[in-house]
Specification:
By secondary structure, the protein is mainly alpha-helical. The protein folds into two domains: 56 residues, no CATH class; 41 residues. It has five helices and no strands. It is elongated.
């Protein structure tokens, strides 16, 4: 039961930080049909924003610039992941009990392994 209260408390805190107090109070005082209308209005807003985002040429251009600028990093990362997968497969083929490739990356990120 303590876990449920913790989750609920976190949700209440999130709403308190992210939603205006007057809006929340108005919704608490609204009748049920009006609450459904508010839900539908917010759902429609989500769809409209998603459509606007898809049609935003400036955003698409910026995304393409970021994709191009980060290509060297993502390509290098993919190459290194493939190398690790290959080498783990080679070691397993030799009967070695080798951790999953992701474990090597996690340990490297935590400074738990060295290449020496």
């Amino acid at each position: 039961m303590g876990i449920e209260k913790d989750k609920r408390q976190k949700q209440l805190e999130k709403w308190g930080k992210k939603l205006p107090e007057d809006w929340r109070q108005n919704q608490l005082g609204a009748n049920t049909p009006d609450l459904y209308k508010s839900i539908i209005k917010s759902a429609m807003n989500i769809v409209q924003l998603a459509m606007a985002k898809e049609l935003d040429e400036d955003l698409a251009s910026l995304k393409e610039q970021v994709k191009d600028a980060s290509a060297q990093y993502s390509d290098g990362t993919k190459q290194n992941h493939l190398q690790i997968e290959f080498l783990v497969d080679v070691l397993r083929g030799r009967g070695e009990d080798v951790p999953d490739p992701a474990d090597f990356v996690r340990k490297a990120a935590n400074g738990e392994v060295t290449a020496s």
